[in-house]
């Protein structure tokens, strides 16, 4: 054990001397390892951070929640030309399904539309996400209220001009004053502010309820009707707990097909996007991104490996005389082999540590600048260290073997 500790100590000393005596050569040789480790750890950290954020944002939602609409969340076998002919879901269909499908816990009707500007007196806040919905939406995608309340079922049914605003909207329009009861203008109409949401932070796709407003969907339906091209209707359906999701989807499909008069043998002219299927789709994308990161990084790691091998071959040549003396004094081939192997691993680890340090610095900067937490996990750091050590081991094995097989007499003579 003491022998190996001595080996490590001497190898570390030789590695540091190589850095000191040949700064530029060593720096250029280690650059490949640094870039390779930086690339793979940066990709893994970014993907892990995105995955963590998605799971956090979806943690309050039931994974069996169904998004019923004319569009699919993921790839579809239905030809594009056929999908474009699908009709939008309607409010009448929402009311029909609400009454006739068993196993529904909550169902809401929503309209997706473009961002708008909101005014209060002389102040205007632009690019606000508008979320018209029925009141059940808040039970399907829970939001947290800081002040006031959410709109009620009667306000939803009648399309009352009441509105719940995000924290940044409240700050932009009212600064430090209380927004509750104030009148704001949207679509040229006056809305009464009845609630303010707690600050949420950035969402999984860069969206956030902090810059969103919620109001009864029937208000917008009364303004634009049900055929406006600027509006995309969707139903959000939360099934009862413990229900068989496939049976539930089958009944839902059968009832909507019957209501629409879709004939037997014809395909569904709507999509039922289940949230769990959406997360599977995201996991697939995450896996592909990881693979791409590994492929890109492999080239840098290959270059880094050649760089380490170059350092070690030069190191063997420069220390040939010292190797001969060590062997003459009784050092075994194994001792010389491990000495150079450890040195290669230490040099590679130094390059890897620099790469991981750069990832950590960039993660800190981006986390503070983008209000998005980039996670550099311990597992990724261990992976980076292990990968760097492996590159050092592979790159140093041939120079180490050549050093261990040197004839002591010839090695000493070469330095004279």
Automatic annotation (TrEMBL):
The record's InterPro entries line, in alphabetical order, gives: ABC3_permease_C (IPR003838), MacB_PCD (IPR025857), Macrolide_Exporter_MacB (IPR050250)
Q: Does the keyword Transmembrane apply?
A: yes
Enumerate the transmembrane spans.
Answer: 27-47, 291-314, 335-362, 382-403
Q: Which GO terms describe its cellular component?
A: plasma membrane
Task: Tell where it localizes.
Answer: Cell membrane
- Annotated MacB-like periplasmic core domain ranges read 26-254
- Name where it mostly resides: membrane
Alphabetical list of Pfam families matching this protein:
FtsX (PF02687), MacB_PCD (PF12704)
Q: From which residue to which does the signal peptide run? A: none
Which GO molecular function annotation, any one, does this entry have?
transmembrane transporter activity
Q: Which UniProt keywords apply?
A: Cell membrane, Membrane, Transmembrane, Transmembrane helix
**Domain ABC3 transporter permease C-terminal, chain residue ranges per copy:** 294-408
The UniProt entry lists membrane topology as: Multi-pass membrane protein
Note whether DNA-binding occurs among the keywords: no
Identify its protein family: Belongs to the ABC-4 integral membrane protein family.
Put simply, this protein is called Putative ABC transport system permease protein
What is the scientific name of the source organism?
Flavobacterium aquaticum
